[in-house]
Model the fold of this input.
Amino acid sequence: MSAVDQVQLNDFLDIFSVEGKVAVVTGGSRGLGLHAASGLLQAGCSKVYITSRKTVACEDAVTALNALPNKRPGAQAISVPADSSRMNELDRLVAEVRKTTDHVDILFANAGASWGEKFDTHPEAAFSRVMDLNVKSVFYTIQKFTPLLTAKATRDEPSRVVITASIAGIGVGTVGENATPSYSASKAAAIHLAKNLAVELGPRHILTNAIAPGFYPSKMASGLIELKGGLKHFQECSPNGRLGRPEDIAGLVVFLSSRASSHLNGAVIATDGGAVLNGRL
Done:
């Protein structure tokens, strides 16, 4: 009897599919959020709600996403602008999403902000804003979407929450003239929040995981990349010799939303090419 005859082979054909799923992407109008939304639509989601603070940005993103040629028939991206830092806006966001769906399968909590300034003059208002958006609003976004996330979730088909943290929350972020202490602290908090929510929400059939991106060329990161030596410098800092690409973040979010990750809960996955292992973020 062969080794293959002695084991049971399973059908893994759709292991990375999110066919028919409903997703909400905060901070979805640009950068990592937009890349993830594109990946989710192309992997089979039927609806992807795009939210960020600016209405025009949301509408532009949705127009581009709905023009994708290889999404499932009838699939659509839907614009729902909202300021995630305000509780009344989060309530409105959930109410707007409820108008066109009775459940949510995937919540990518990606909205965030940063501030760079030296230690001696780092302003209190900026520190508070970063912590509020990167930690408090993430918690309350998840809290307010939980009824929709649990609506159709089961033990064998759980809903997913993916929180965007950062390798700055694992190692030491930027210090010196453009120090980002609030960003680093907020992303460390986001990682620990994901672990707490994994335990809190797991019994409700919601899996919560965090991703920790390194530097991806984006509007938020571009200024800091230039200040710290440019693209070539960061490529040389990474063991794999490059920065993140759109498909890297899209693929990771699709994986964490698919059946392939159904036994991951409270995990933190760095997507930085190994740069944090070099101690050079």
Summary: The helical segments are 31-42, 55-66, 87-98, 124-150, 181-201, 219-227, 230-237, 246-257. Residues 124-150 form the longest helix (27 residues). Residues 22-271 form a domain with the Rossmann fold fold (CATH 3.40.50.720).
